[in-house]
Input
Amino acid sequence: MRQALRRPFEWSALFEQIESIGVRSMSVVVLTAVFSSMVITIQFAFQLARFGAKEWAGNAVGVTLARELGPVMTALMVGGRVGAGIAAELGSMSVTEQVDAVRVLGADPIKKLVVPRVLATVLVLPLMSAVAVVLGLLAGGVIASLEPDVHFDYFLSAALRSTTLKDFFSGQVKTLFFAFNISIVACHHGLATRGGTVGVGRATTETVVVTSVVTLVSDFILTKLFLAIGLG
Output
């Protein structure tokens, strides 16, 4: 955090990481959001039909996407892709002594390598989560309209009526924590890599596992915390 506030700011590196982390991850986020939403819509519609309440599927899907499914699935997918990429990139630089070269040139590796990646992840992950929620809701409405007694317009209106801004912002705030955790863990494993190409592979694997576990654990803790303070 101290290095992030020091001048000069690495704007070019930040924009490069935003393009690498955000733009190149959108296809994965969109596919995950669309198909996950369609699955839970089918499941909700089927289960609620047993109680004659199939028309309530939109309410359940909207809240689930905004609060949990959109942010968590986005964080897991982006964490796997981006975390592995950051760890592999920094790990390769570590084992080939490029990080040491940055120090020799009088620059701080934290400011040059870590800060742009952490800031870019924190900036783009909430945006990708919001896109996942919107596209997931539309995909759920499309698949729900194929069921009898459920119409696309009614599904969307029910989802929007039951999903409040507090539900949406609750999920978005979580993504800030997810993004910070993912990027910090990936950078740590990358810079701590030793042992040549074998070490790079090990660091990449550990990063994917740790970021997934940290995302799920932090989601539980944040959910309990938000409910306790009235944000949940």
Notes: The chain has a mean pLDDT of 85. The chain is about 80% helix and 0% strand. Residues 71 and 116 are 22 Å apart (CA to CA). The radius of gyration is 20 Å.
